[in-house]
Amino acid sequence: MPEIYFGDIDYYIAKDNVGAYKHFNILAENWKNIIIGDIRKFYIPGNHYSQYKESQTQKF
Predict the structure, then answer these.
(1) What are the C-alpha distances in Å from 6 to residues 33, 38, 41, 49?
(2) Domain of life here (predicted)?
(3) Is residue 49 included in any domain, yes or no?
(4) What percent of the chain has pLDDT over 70?
(5) Is 60 within a domain?
């Protein structure tokens, strides 16, 4: 059982995810049970893998 997390979470979600990655939003729903704070969702262009390209990472 995970311990309770005290604090807010910034969750960055790629808009174009496919395969298993398109279901990662479900994780955020499960996190609500173990955090004392807010989950802020930010939708970003691209998919899970394109986020690691230098041109994308500089946007953060």
Answers:
(1) 12, 10, 17, 30
(2) Bacteria
(3) no
(4) 78
(5) no
Name the residue with tokens 């939708």: 43
Residue 29 included in any domain: yes
Q: What is the pTM of this model?
A: 0.64
35-36 and 39-44 strand pairing: unpaired
Q: In which residue are the tokens 């955020």 written? A: 28
Distances (CA, A) of 38 to 22, 31, 53: 22, 10, 29
Are 39 and 33 in contact by the 8 Å Cβ rule? The answer is: no
* Domains of the chain: total: 1
Within a domain: 59: no
Domain coverage including residue 15: 9-44
Q: Helix, strand, or coil here: 54?
A: helix
